[in-house]
Structures are given as C-alpha cells and as structure tokens.
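Person: At home tonight, work slowly through the protein below, taking as long as you need, and write a paragraph about the fold.
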Amino acid sequence: MLCRGLKFAIPQKVSSIEIMASFERAYWFLEPNFQQDQKELTTAALRSVAVNYIHSRCPIPPKGLVKAIHRLNRRNDIVISKPDKGSGVVIMNKDDYLRLLADASVNNQSKFRPCSTEKPKSRGRPPKNYHPLLEKEKELNTVVKKILPKTTADNICSKGSRLAHLYGLPKMHKKDPAMRPVLSATDTYNYNLAKW
C-alpha cells in the first residue's frame, strides 16, 4: 500500500444531491443568456449530463487496501514520513524517531531552551494567558495596534494562534541515522506580521 506514495488517497463518494444542486446553480447562472426556444433543450442536456455523472461510479478500491490503511492508522508505534531528500516513504520506530529528533533539535541548547508550562501563582483573579508565548502575543498586538492603521493591524494580528509544530525528516542518504528538524511556524503569534 505504501508503494503508492504518501499522496495516495481513496476516492471519496460523491453526493448525488450536491451534484444536482451544482448543475441547477449552473443552469440558473446561464439561463439569462438563452433564448426562449433553447431553454428546454438546455435543461434536458444538463439533466442528462448530471444523471450520467452520478451513475458513472468512481472505482471502488480493493478491500485489502482499505484494511491495510485502517491497520496502519491504528498503529501508534511507528511513524510514516517522507525522506529529507528525494521521494519515497520512510517507516520508523516511533521511539527512534523521537530520539533522533530530540538529538537534532530540542537537546541543542544553542537553538532551544526549556519553557515552563506551569501556571504562575497569583492572588485574586488568575491571568487569562499564563503561557509565555500567549503573553507575548498579547503584548505584540497592543504595540502593532498603536503603530499601524486599524484595518492593517486587524489583518496582521492573529485571532487565536497556535504553538509552533516541530517535526523531522529522516536523512536517508547518510550512513548514520540522522534527522532534519523542521519547525512549522504557520499561524503562530507573529506569523501574519512576519508575512506582512
């Protein structure tokens, strides 16, 4: 199953109601351009095309393939990813993957430092954002809104960000096992500002 590549997907079932609705929407969009004697012919042609499209079923994948996909989905002890260079599929033991990723990134003190996730002790009302990055997001938003016009500031300030996501791509071209760490910063607290 994995020889088909990581972009392989089982075809989804098509809803006949959605197809009929989209053809009807296309007809109402095109109707003002038709002459009176062409409307019935166009309606019949569109109906015929829609019915033929619905009845031409997409190919059903073999049951063995579907079972293999479900079995791989349930396994928590392996990681399936693409290699660092070239194309293909890499299957790794999850413990080895996490160890190599930590050695290549998190354990390197020059690039990363530990951040406490404990809630600070405070009297009275607890703080809304106790994580340091969420607090930085709040500070950044106030500074940006003071400097830039309101419309621009609203576009570049994030509305509920997420933490950065770290993953690794195995270096299969090396003799010793190694990992290339990738830090995905999409939708983080300063992503829209950096993009702008």
Q: What stands out?
A: The chain has a mean pLDDT of 81. Residues 78-119+128-195 form one domain. The longest helix spans residues 39-55.
